[in-house]
Q: What sequence folds into this?
């Protein structure tokens, strides 16, 4: 949505598919995220949306990064997916992951995009996606969470 500088209404329209779901943003994870995350709040306010916007506390983001570094996830930044999985593990009794895969092909050998919303590849070393997936699979094997890799029905 071009950082919400022009595509405000289309962004709002897409969010309406999620009805009253809250929007959770890593606004203070890095300076590039801050402006666009705050614009999300302004867009929802301007269109009088009932959806709540929440931001991760900066210290929480630092703690999550430190924890995963101690678990062997070595990258410039952990992914927002890993941040959300971490929060879900802290808040939910059951966590099921769909759509998390760090490789160009799924387990069935079908090529897949890098993100659910585009296929822009990250810079090498920016995220440690294989390491993140390894940790998800390790937690899956211990029954901590469930990783689903098949097609959704």
A:
């Amino acid at each position: 949505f071009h950082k919400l500088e022009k595509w405000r209404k289309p962004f709002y329209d897409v969010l309406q598919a999620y009805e009253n779901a809250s929007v959770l943003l890593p606004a203070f994870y890095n300076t590039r995220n801050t402006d666009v995350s705050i614009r999300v709040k302004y867009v929802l306010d301007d269109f009088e949306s009932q959806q709540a916007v929440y931001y991760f506390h900066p210290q929480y983001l630092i703690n999550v990064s430190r924890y995963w570094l101690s678990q062997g996830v070595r990258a410039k930044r952990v992914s927002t997916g890993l941040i959300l999985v971490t929060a879900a593990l802290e808040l939910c009794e059951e966590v099921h992951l769909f759509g998390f895969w760090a490789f160009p092909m799924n387990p069935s050998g079908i090529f897949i995009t890098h993100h659910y919303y585009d296929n822009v590849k990250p810079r090498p070393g920016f995220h440690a996606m294989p390491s993140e997936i390894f940790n998800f699979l390790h937690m899956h094997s211990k029954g901590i969470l469930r990783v689903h890799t098949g097609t959704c029905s």
The chain has a mean pLDDT of 85. The first helix runs from residue 8 to 15. The beta strands are 23-25, 53-55, 96-98, 146-148.
